[in-house]
């Protein structure tokens, strides 16, 4: 049986943070990933902008350490030019190279096409995870485990309770297939936005278009005339990917009732791919600068924003987020608004009460699974109310949670302690020494 100090389920931003922290702190570390690539939503669902590293107004850096190493490596592969406004735009293929390069550099064992379908327990401890691949199933054992599956799969397999969807109502955030458009003429686009501010806006940062907002009138008119198939959206945002004339569009939206149903997910993906094709044609025909553009690609997978969340020693509350909550056991900061892609109301942003330059803290207890001594729950599946997750899920914050989990795992093994008894003061000190901003 393959055996590790630290076993991480899911190699998205959160899992990568945990793996890099674990390996850099001396742990024999493995990432088990169902996709044929690392990066999670970054690479498989074309979420090509890192949010959460800065406050929402972009004025203050609130996440540091491992994210800086990823961004520097990504720059080396030509995948980003760094911060623009409040986010770091990048290109997905270069991100695949950068994160795999870092995994190799720090000796992380990576398993691709490997789905974790269960686990074995001894008392309150997980001893191994059950992985299915081409060889059937096999066990991978470990001392400490991280659930960064986004769907709280491992947390669920421990037979602990898990939370799903909006409390009391059960619905989930809508899912998206982003798509890339290349060869957009930015000069023509800028002129068009100046001539038609009622239709689109294209704010410039350092003379470049960073973001395009297509206002509702244009989208609604095209939908009414059956010239655009975008059933769940009446406005559109596109973001520059860090290369001139190349934009990513997040406008497609599908309502998913049961993300565990392969059939329902297949229907949603097929519908989203129709939305991609229709939306691209709409942009090409209606927005100056897009005439000679082409549909470069759409994401290989479907981007899930929210599915299932673990239940930790603390459940992060909506009020903690909105009121800038402070915790003695803080391990990360986040300033992102509640961003809810509501299947009934559309996209809803609720900003933090103290404004876009403010932030709240994520407590260590909300990344420690309740009832299990050696399981951390991070990223999309942290222990949080639905509304709180709608903020804390952004990828910069997910990475920061991972950093904390990786360092805490090392301390658990060293001190032979359950995760909930880690010396949090020492954890915070170590994180700060490693570049985290607390
Ligand atoms: C369309 C869309 C747009 C977004 N826009 C932004 C944005 O602009 N900026 C930003 O920062 N965030 C954005 N987000 C949010 C962000 O992408 C996620 O919240 C972030 O990726 C969370 O990281 P994670 O590692 O927790 O989860 P994920 O990125 O979802 O990674 C989870 C990983 O676990 C793997 N996995 C799942 N189950 C198993 C299993 N049983 N066994 C093995 N592997 C498994 C998955 O394949 C995946 O690789 C967006 C999300 C979506 C969907």
TrEMBL record:
Its EC number is 1.8.-.-. Pathway: Cofactor metabolism; coenzyme M-coenzyme B heterodisulfide reduction; coenzyme B and coenzyme M from coenzyme M-coenzyme B heterodisulfide: step 1/1. Pfam families: FAD_oxidored (PF12831). Keywords: 4Fe-4S, FAD, Flavoprotein, Iron, Iron-sulfur, Metal-binding, Oxidoreductase. It comes from the Archaea. Its cofactor is FAD; [4Fe-4S] cluster. GO terms for molecular function: 4 iron, 4 sulfur cluster binding; metal ion binding; oxidoreductase activity. It is an enzyme of class 1 (oxidoreductase). Part of a complex that catalyzes the reversible reduction of CoM-S-S-CoB to the thiol-coenzymes H-S-CoM (coenzyme M) and H-S-CoB (coenzyme B). The ferredoxin:CoB-CoM heterodisulfide reductase is composed of three subunits; HdrA, HdrB and HdrC. Belongs to the HdrA family. PANTHER family: COB--COM HETERODISULFIDE REDUCTASE IRON-SULFUR SUBUNIT A (PTHR43498:SF1), FERREDOXIN:COB-COM HETERODISULFIDE REDUCTASE SUBUNIT A (PTHR43498). This is CoB--CoM heterodisulfide reductase iron-sulfur subunit A. The lineage of its organism: Archaea, Candidatus Micrarchaeota, Candidatus Mancarchaeum.
């Amino acid at each position: 049986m393959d055996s590790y100090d630290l076993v991480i389920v899911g190699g998205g931003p959160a899992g990568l943070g945990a793996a890099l922290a674990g390996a850099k702190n001396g742990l024999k570390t493995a990432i088990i990933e169902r996709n044929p690539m690392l990066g999670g939503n970054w690479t498989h669902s074309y979420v090509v902008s890192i949010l959460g590293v800065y406050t929402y107004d972009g004025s203050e850096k609130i996440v540091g350490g491992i994210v800086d190493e990823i961004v520097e490596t990504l720059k080396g592969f030509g995948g980003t030019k760094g911060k623009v406004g409040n986010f770091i735009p990048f290109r997905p293929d270069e991100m695949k190279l950068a994160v795999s390069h870092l995994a190799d550099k720090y000796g992380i064992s990576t398993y691709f096409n490997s789905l974790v379908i269960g686990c074995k327990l001894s008392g309150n401890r997980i001893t191994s995870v059950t992985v299915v691949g081409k060889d059937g199933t096999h066990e991978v054992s470990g001392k400490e485990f991280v659930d960064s599956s986004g769907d709280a799969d491992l947390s669920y397999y421990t037979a602990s309770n898990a939370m799903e969807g909006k409390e009391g109502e059960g619905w989930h955030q809508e899912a998206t297939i982003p798509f890339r458009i290349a060869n957009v003429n930015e000069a023509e686009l800028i002129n068009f936005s100046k001539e038609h501010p009622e239709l689109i806006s294209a704010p410039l940062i350092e003379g470049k278009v960073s973001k395009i907002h297509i206002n509702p009138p244009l989208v609604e008119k095209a939908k009414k005339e059956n010239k655009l198939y975008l059933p769940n959206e009446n406005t559109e945002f596109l973001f520059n990917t860090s290369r001139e004339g190349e934009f990513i569009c997040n406008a497609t939206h599908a309502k998913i009732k049961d993300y565990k149903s392969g059939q329902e997910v297949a229907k949603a993906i097929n519908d989203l791919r129709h939305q991609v094709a229709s939306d691209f044609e709409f942009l090409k025909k209606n927005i100056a600068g897009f005439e000679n553009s082409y549909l470069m690609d759409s994401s290989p997978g479907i981007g899930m924003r929210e599915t299932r969340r673990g239940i930790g020693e603390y459940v992060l509350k909506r009020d903690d987020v909105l009121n800038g909550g402070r915790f003695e056991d803080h391990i990360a900061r986040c300033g992102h608004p509640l961003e809810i892609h509501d299947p009934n109301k559309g996209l809803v942003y609720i900003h933090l009460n103290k404004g876009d330059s403010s932030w709240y803290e994520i407590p260590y207890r909300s990344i420690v699974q309740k009832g299990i001594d050696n399981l951390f729950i991070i990223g999309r599946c942290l222990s949080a109310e639905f509304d709180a997750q709608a903020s804390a899920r952004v990828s910069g914050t997910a990475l920061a949670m991972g950093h904390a989990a990786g360092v805490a795992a090392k301390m658990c093994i060293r001190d032979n302690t359950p995760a909930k008894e880690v010396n949090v003061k020492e954890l915070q000190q170590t994180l700060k020494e490693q570049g985290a901003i607390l």
